[in-house]
Amino acid sequence: MTKHYDLIVIGSGPGGEKGAAQAAYFGKKVAIVERAPYLGGAGINTGTVPSKTLRETALYYSGLLQRGLYGIDYSLKDHMTIADFMHREKAVVNREHEIIQHNLDRHNIEVYWGEGSLKDSHTVNVHSTDGTDTELQADIILIATGSSPYQPPDVPFDGTLVFDSDTILRMKFIPKTLVVVGGGVIGCEYASVFAALGVHVTLIEGREKILPFVDQEIVERLLRQLKKMNVKILLQEKVDKTVIQGKQVHLSLQSGEELVVDCALYASGRQGNVSGLGLEALGIEIGKRGLITVNEKFQTSLLNIYAAGDVIGFPALASTSMEQGRVAMAHAFNLAYKQRMSPVLPLAVYTVPEMAMVGLTEEACQEQKTPYLVGRTYSENNARGQIIGDNGMLKLIFSPNDKKLLGVHLIGELASELVHIGSEVIRENGTIDVFIESVYNYPTLSEMYKYAAYDGLGNLDKWLEKSQHTSK
């Protein structure tokens, strides 16, 4: 017998779980279909949480943050594996599984374990691991199947010496040398984490710069930090051939250089998990790398079928995926709750040191011909920054005409937390005067906002003086 629901969600990652809970909260009958043996998607199980746990563990074991502060030389044990570092990861992931399961139980959401595929615009077939099939029907369907690492076809991925961003966490040993191919978010994060562990890392990027969406002054500071950790960075370079020979990886570069390393990580972007869903047969539009095309309400070309999260592409963050799922279901069921995504989306890159940003970069202002000024401050001039040995920066971008805050960019410890202060000011169309008027605990890194704003006001005075002199 076919079971009927108001909503069927395919995928239990951040977008799927929050979309399901949003509809169920308002009394809708909801089912989730999950093909993996666990809830939470890549964010909990293979991507966000495990990689960030590895980052924190690497900082702890290596003593990287304490070396300059206390003069302590930490040395890692020989023959340590990733598993040795990841005890905490298991505890965190297990707890996240419990939290997600509790949320689904609380909202009476049923979970079907198996491979979901669309039979028609209202029917989902679930093929379970025991070989049985269950047919479900719903008024609304939400596809939140996430993404997987893209594997270039000519690369010999073996999960032992050559890895993608999922299999890297199952590495059997900490290598002495590592090549990371790809200077995007994932590539830069892993390059810096392994460098913190004392691995000799070479980062290869085909473009002329890494992280092109990040304010380039911030990127330059990251590059200086990576070089201090002995990361070799090759820009405008590509790998022609990757070969496993014995217990090493040989890479031939377009420049003619040959690299021989213990391991290689390819961070070549991701592709949408749409295989087997049957979307093409229904006429649902799919773009490059399996990304589903949606409108501003996250509807596909079949309007009762929605998609959210990594499977629709950039920014492909857990935070934005959650909001996309909620907004999509509020629209699907005409819920007077969350009508749109916030236009202000903070981003964080969990490198060592971490970076965070919200709003416009200097490069974007220049491209859009938007007048702007900058205010900066450095954590080495901040009492809390000195206490923890940080070497970061906070940069404010604002309009010289009305002091309206346009962008916030940080590098340093807790950047991913601190960015939210600036994010709220931008969302409220506030000015840098907000930071001048605010009171911050002392000593805190948050206080850097005030001094960056003071620096900005000083630059505004110079700008006004120059403008008056020019107009005479």
How would you describe this structure in keywords?
alpha/beta; 24% strand; 33% helix; FAD/NAD(P)-binding domain; Enolase-like, domain 1; seven-stranded mixed sheet; globular; 472 residues; five-stranded parallel sheet; 3 domains
Amount of beta strand: 15-25%
Share of helix, binned: 25-40%
CATH topology of the largest domain: FAD/NAD(P)-binding domain
* Structural class estimated from helices and strands: alpha/beta
- For the termini, the CA-CA separation is 84 Å
What would you call the shape? globular
- Provide the CATH superfamily of the largest domain: FAD/NAD(P)-binding domain
Rg estimate, integer Å: 24 Å
Second-tier CATH architecture of the largest domain? 3-Layer(bba) Sandwich
Indicate how many domains the architecture comprises: 3
**Could you tell me the mean pLDDT?**
92
CATH class of the largest domain equals Alpha Beta
* Uncertain parts: none
How many DSSP E strands?
A: 22
User: Biggest sheet, in brief?
Assistant: 7 strands, mixed
Tally of individual helices: 14
